[in-house]
TrEMBL record:
<keyword id="KW-0812">Transmembrane</keyword>
<feature type="transmembrane region" description="Helical">
    <location>
        <begin position="20"/>
        <end position="41"/>
    </location>
</feature>
<keyword id="KW-1133">Transmembrane helix</keyword>
<keyword id="KW-0472">Membrane</keyword>
<protein>
    <submittedName>
        <fullName>Uncharacterized protein</fullName>
    </submittedName>
</protein>
<feature type="transmembrane region" description="Helical">
    <location>
        <begin position="82"/>
        <end position="102"/>
    </location>
</feature>
<feature type="transmembrane region" description="Helical">
    <location>
        <begin position="53"/>
        <end position="76"/>
    </location>
</feature>
Length: 107
């Protein structure tokens, strides 16, 4: 089975897998930057009681929501490889949070 979608009507495929992969890459980079930034801001929040919860909520949205959005975009475009790569990003929060809390890297 091919990774590229077939064209309707047997004609030439007019979809642009490179463009979809660029969009998925941009969304992946956003998830890899915004998720950890929000989590670290949440762990360092001390101004008021709701601040840490707000940062953790934003971090969760970036960690989980952006990869799911990227997978949805790639799925609609018919690019299975990019969709699978986006779903693999869902493991990143587990790795990042483990590094922060279980190693000396987290401080």
């Amino acid at each position: 089975m091919s990774d590229s979608p077939s064209a309707s009507g047997g004609g030439r495929n007019t979809r642009h897998p490179t463009g979809i992969r660029v969009v998925v890459l941009v969304l992946a980079l956003m998830a890899l930057v915004l998720g950890p930034a929000g989590y670290l801001m949440g762990t360092n929040a001390q101004s008021h009681a709701g601040s840490a919860a707000e940062w953790f909520t934003l971090s969760f949205g970036a960690f989980v929501g952006i990869p799911l959005l990227a997978a949805a975009v790639a799925t609609v475009a018919g690019d299975r490889r990019a969709a699978l790569g986006s779903l693999v990003l869902l493991a990143w929060p587990l790795v990042f949070v483990s590094l922060i809390h279980f190693t000396p890297l987290g401080g």
